[in-house]
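Um, can you check?
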Amino acid sequence: MKEELQKIIEHENENWSKIFNSELRNNREKFSSYWWEDYYRELTDFVNRMIFRNRFKTILEAGSGSGKATILLDDNFLKTLLDISPVALKYAAHLAEKFKCQNVKYVEGNIFEMPFKTESFDFVWNIGVVEHYNLDQIESIVGEMARVCNKNGVIAIGVPNFYSGPILKAWLLKIIKIIPGYKLDTEKFYEISKIEDVLKNISEKMERKIDNIQIEYFGNPLITETPRLILKLIGKPIARIFRKNKFLILIICKFK
């Protein structure tokens, strides 16, 4: 099992390091499209409100990749980005400089054995991480997230929505390999209830009661290349009608 997990970790590290190396060489824009600009605005507005409401100060993105969502949060928060890839952290530092963001710390480390003391952060989250692992491995990741989260803190797990336009496109490109663009790789798509069960199992094992579990959706259901004009004209009505087809599913767990 350990060998299998190590292979998955090595594959993810190699794959995403290539992607971030390419981004470092080629990406000059703050956002690659208006779709992404709107997505990050929607997501960070929500998270900022939640953190301010709970009077949190310290944030950890565990398995941060680019860390873009955390970097774009309010500068009053103390932000820590943890990733196994030094290339990812280098790219994150590049983004922080580009957006003139402060209070960001970069830590190279493994999400299965995070180099932090128990109860070190108020808000612990990640986006686009756990879907690359099986449920037992997800429980280990989320267990570590819960361990380093303060007693009355919040953990959140963001997973891509298979029924959203961007992910359906990535699935199609995996089949039609000759067309360029992001293709699905090792992603697995779980029912939300499966992730909720993981959280409940961890709650029982750690004897930490859950206050509530909240599900939120972010990002327009249309593909990321949708022109700005179309998104501005019909993007919001489409997002309201097809709310559960939005790009990101964020599962938020608040402890007592």
Summary: The helical segments are 2-26, 34-54, 68-71, 86-98, 135-147, 165-175, 192-206, 228-241. The chain has eight helices and seven strands. The chain has one domain: 2-255. The beta strands are 58-62, 78-83, 104-108, 121-127, 149-160, 210-218, 248-255.
